[in-house]
Amino acid sequence: MTSRIAKKRGEWINRDKPLTFQYEGQTVQGYEGDTISSALWAAGINVLGRSFKYHRARGVLSFANHDVNAMMTDGVDTNIRADVWPVADGMDIKAVNTIGGVLKDKNKYIDYLSPFLPVGFYYKTFYKPKSLFPFWEDKIRKAAGLGEVNFNYPRIIKPKKFAHCDVLIIGAGLSGLSAAVKAAEQGLDVIVVDENKQAGGSLTYDYAGEQTTADTLTSLLGKVESNPNIRLITDAYAGGFYGDKLVPLVGKDGITKVWAKSVIVASGAFEQPPVFRYNDLPGVMLGSAAQRLIHRYAVKPFNKGVVVTANDYGYRTALDLASVGVDVVAVIDMRRNGAPRDLSQKVRDKGIAVHISSCIYEVIPTSDKLGVKAVSVCPYDDISAGADSGHTVRLSCDGVAMSAGWAPAAALLYQAGTKMRYDYSVEQFVPDELPEGVFAAGKVNGVFDSKARQLDGQRAAAEAAAFLGKTVDVVTVPKVEMAPPSHPYPIVEHPKGKNFVDFDEDIQVKDFINAAKEGFDNIELMKRFTTVGMGPSQGKHSNMNAIRILARVRQLPVEKIGTTTARPFFHPTPIGHLGGRGFHPHRYTAMHEWHVDNGGVMMDAGMWMRPAYYQYRGRTMSAMEAVQEEALAVRQQAGMIDGSTLGKIEVFGADATEFLERFYTGKFSKQKIGESRIALLLDEAGVMVDDGLAVRVDDEKFYVSTNSSNAATVYREMQRNVQLWGLQVTLVNLTGAMAAMTLAGPKSREILSTLTKADISEASLPDGNMIQAEIAGVDAKVMRVSFVSDLAFEIHVPYKAGLHVWKQIMAAGESHGIRPFGTDVQRLLRLEMGHHLISHDTDGLTNPYEAHSEALLKMDKPFFIGQRSLKIIAKKTLNKKLVNFVLEKDFTGDMPNECNLVIEDGNIKGRVTSIAYSKYLNRVIGFAFVAPEQGSTGSTFSIRTDSGAMVKATVVKAPFFHLLDNDGE
Amino acid sequence: MPLGLLKYGLSSEHPAPRFFRDCTEPKKSYDAVIIGGGGHGLAAAYYLAKDYGITNVAVLEKGYIGGGNTGRNTTIVRSNYLTPEGVNFYDASVKIYEDLSEELDLNLFYSTRGHFTLAHTESAMRTMRWRAEVNKHVGVESYVVGPEEISKACPQLDISCSGQAPILGALYHAPGSVARHDAVAWGYAKEADRMGVEIFQMTEVTGIDTKGGKVVGVNTSKGYISTNRVLSAVAGFTPRITEMVDLQTPIVIHPLQACVSEPMKPWLDTILVSGSLHVYVSQSSRGELVMGSSLDPYEFHSTRSSLDFVEGLTTHITDMFPFLSNVKVVRQWGGMADITPDFAPIMGKTPLEGFYLDAGWGTWGFKATPISGKTMAETIAKDMAPDLIKSFRLSRFEDYELTGEKGAASVGH
Ligand SMILES: Cc1cc2nc3c(=O)[nH]c(=O)nc-3n(C[C@H](O)[C@H](O)[C@H](O)COP(=O)(O)OP(=O)(O)OC[C@H]3O[C@@H](n4cnc5c(N)ncnc54)[C@H](O)[C@@H]3O)c2cc1C
């Protein structure tokens, strides 16, 4: 049984390309160009899915990408929208959200329970006793949801495209295309986008049988295609309207982000279903859906049907239906005046009865409840919205087309910030105040007449051109007298309900009435309580009726009810499209490959990759062994670490000294060239942020280093403060441009001497000093530092020379037993030296007084960041203190971990911030926050380990090396 | 079928009575006026009536109740904070939540799912351990778990995060829950109303009237109301209210956004949070994935959505769950988060007599709705803040006694 009809002019299917697919185990034929729904409908298959809540059988509603009851899965993808998704040869699909198939769905019993599942029912039950809620919740969760996710679905990466234009036109219907042509004629660069596979909007289904329509469309498309100023993008929707007129166009293969100088929204209107009992049965569809079936897919919507209407569209739908051989039993017009005489006469001439002031009281379902058997029609008073159910007439039929009105597709206008008003002449919300550079045209603007829509498009284009500085003549759109295309209250109450307003969420008229009576009587609360418009179609066919019902209940005019906020996305948008490519930048130092080749165990350090330690020269060791070995090498011979990740910033200019004085806590004014000073940075609240070194390079120039993890933050803060203070300072971030390495250990000077002619003796280059020297033939900054060892050299060279210098030093150190060492080793070494690490040993509230850094605070300076706070803090008693501690000699118990708490009398006094076993010292050493009274050398405190054991620790002086020559403390 | 539904279905008396009256004209004076009909304001009204018998109270809401951050949040409730003060406070809230459906006679869909804060770096692992230690100390069930345990709870999670940020472990928090946000507001409104509190929607406070350092009344879009006690519980609008009384707070407003997917059959049973990837996600009882990220990096007083937000979020979601590529985002939205420097709230009295502040709820205030209502009610009734909220006092900023919740609150909600 096929309902495919003879070829229609302009049809979207390609009859030369037949194809076959499986639906619910049944083989179905279709054509290229069919959507899943059109192919199924052509094959006489009308049950396309089950509803979200009651699991009612559903068919076609809109054919406009909001038939969310007809969602499919092919086992790979889920929630595929059958009304718009193209069929493909060999596809094997079934409806989502059923148990045991769409016809037999085991959950259909829920429909019979619906009297017990009124609006908001779940708020009123399942919670007493609370112990049973998890049981009910599990049931509810399983019943809800739509498709099942396929956990094996591949990650899809869709790079984004970018576009710019003078005018972006959303919607390629009559008004949008007219606007495009007009705008392009003004020399503007135009993009027109339409979500349909083909441009033309309603011209492709309404009046589509007429020659003039075809001619209009052909001529407009011809102009569009031949104009180089116009880019027409079909099969993509405008997903949202964001700041700066950013509109993402979502296509099948990704998103194009369009930044437009102006935007014309010509997105048309969504047809709205009138509401009557069983308006959701398969076979009951919107008039525009019936027209789409006929004209785009050449499918006869049903064999014998009625049209229920409240505008002229219904009459045209009736004529279309009759023209393809549907036995149209009647046009049921809810209006008291009916259609203009010539139109209704045309319909009558086809032998179709026209009943005015009538409505469908209910649809009579077939015995299996899967289709339409008849409709029951009764008189209807469109002012009181009263149906006279005492006088019903039954008309047998197998289908119903509904054309009762429209709602503007205004989501993007709302997102742009448009104020809307209700216009009684069209019974629709229309734009009242549009934001700058945003225009509306066509049905979304309340303009329905064909001629007027063309003019309205041109008018919007002229206004956009004027906005963009062109001189254009104003286009005026004469008001066309016509009956409103929308009925103000196309809603028929029925004592037995099942008159659906929201098909996504199965919400009936009484649900709204009850919600209002329960106090949810403003539109936003009503939306939240009933969940109207919260489903995947976002209220495209339901919000307007919800507003009308609420207005009626509250006896207020519609405009007093207002609308709910429309948020992106216009249609649900795939996560993979939105995510696009995604960037995960990693930074490699100049020596990266060397580390990898030499067994470096690489770890993420912010964006950088750094070796934590090495499985040096192919040996396999535990991390612990490797760390201790590398540390011992540094203590006994020499070691080298790649320090290229350090922040390196050049600060120069007339005010460079003044800048550092304000930025850091220390004094820099008397600092000599070649000397370094500790650069401690605080925030306004006096919290420690970073510590680095600032070396004076010349009178007006410093070379400043920062901790690796703070390189970006410090540079940003410097930039910000240079601006704020208006100082003559230039900043150059050399972090990536310079490689750096630290050569440490008793043999380090000896090793380095073999590679340089410079004098690096203790006398010429004492700790804290820097020289410019040639190392292995490369011009380098060489600095004496003491973070990991008393004798250490930090060598900075240009990135490109990094690897060379590193290799030369390693080679020169070979005979001295040099080892490369990683970040885990550095942590241990600096701990042995008694140096805390900011943000490892300190936290977001630690001030310098708590971390024994008072000596770095030059409180007598006129200003530095955080000084004001410190002055206040200095007067307060400390409540915690960072100390160095050791565990007992030969400690064997339960080893404490970092972050274990310091406990005294059952109260938290602090925590361990660093702890490690040092093979060199043969002791467990660490840092901890303790109460100030526990903070003096020799005091003891207790650490609670993971297992709850209490471990005694003793406060000692730093560095820890005194532990070597002294057995007690 | 539970009895309640059966009765409902069989009765002819649809519908149930109004949840709350339709109050339109405020009286001339009230014992207390609460600005803001979000969860916090309504809860405070409820506890004022219930715990202290103060029922001559007006709640003034410029829009509709629950329409602020209460109705926009991603409803994560947990107590695994970092400071003992924080843990104690949020734990008290969790305890109230657990029985709140029964207390308010409304199903709040309070659903205990377990909550994993994922750690992708060593330093994150340290913070997890720290939080676990403090939680354990206070008696809250949180502990550090390894990747195997995470996989057991959520087998679909790619532990390597597509190789971009391998998960090293997580802080597991057993009481972590989600709830139906609107219902919390409606439930408090319903019960407060039943005890006599009057709730005025579409009623905006436009000024606060003071005399001699004391509050004497408020100006509203529905006229003047005299009162000696005013509570401001307006979250993202706090600067608008505090500037009416020349009160300085360190609160800044940042947008915070979220989005939901299409409904799908249940598969994600736990709540997952990743600080490094700036993602948190749970699945609602309707089947939608509820997803959010960290604060937008700029100050901005608007609830407008941005594309950047969903782009970033979805990239990271697919790092964790590569198979979600073709699952669709239905809707995104934003709220205005009132952020404090230490990521702890500001609660209690202010230098202006009779003016009480409940603010600084940023990204984390939904979970605190019951306890903040209860403690603010006590503060108003006794004109003294209870010990539980002493460390959240406004003066802590001038006293340099901050509460340091940044590590636990910033992405975690
Ligand atoms: C996207 C997002 C996700 C979040 N996720 C979480 C989470 O997972 N967990 C969590 O615990 N918290 C979360 N939060 C934070 C949480 O939502 C808020 O902290 C909390 O809801 C604040 O509640 P409230 O009642 O104080 O404020 P709101 O709910 O914002 O209520 C304040 C009310 O005051 C009204 N108002 C303002 N000015 C006036 C005036 N002049 N006159 C009258 N009325 C006025 C407003 O209209 C508003 O309704 C999130 C927030 C956002 C935005």
From TrEMBL, chain A:
It comes from the Bacteria. Residues 591-861 form the GCVT N-terminal domain. Keywords: Aminotransferase, Oxidoreductase, Transferase. Gene3D superfamilies: 2Fe-2S iron-sulphur cluster binding domain, sarcosine oxidase, alpha subunit, N-terminal domain, BFD-like [2Fe-2S]-binding domain, FAD/NAD(P)-binding domain, Probable tRNA modification gtpase trme, domain 1. Residues 496-578 form the SoxA A3 domain. Pfam families: Fer2_4, GCV_T, GCV_T_C, Pyr_redox_2, SO_alpha_A3. Residues 880-961 form the Aminomethyltransferase C-terminal domain. Residues 166-445 form the FAD/NAD(P)-binding domain. One of its GO terms (molecular function) is oxidoreductase activity. Belongs to the GcvT family. This is N-methylglutamate dehydrogenase subunit C. It comes from Methylophaga sulfidovorans. The lineage of its organism: Bacteria, Pseudomonadati, Pseudomonadota, Gammaproteobacteria, Thiotrichales.
From TrEMBL, chain B:
This is N-methylglutamate dehydrogenase subunit A. SUPFAM superfamilies: FAD-linked reductases, C-terminal domain (SSF54373), FAD/NAD(P)-binding domain (SSF51905). GO terms for molecular function: oxidoreductase activity. The keyword Ribosomal protein does not apply. Keywords: Oxidoreductase. PROSITE patterns: RHODANESE_3. InterPro entries: FAD-dep_OxRdtase (IPR006076), FAD/NAD-bd_sf (IPR036188), Rhodanese-like_dom (IPR001763). Residues 33-76 form the Rhodanese domain. One of its GO terms (cellular component) is cytoplasm. Pfam families: DAO.
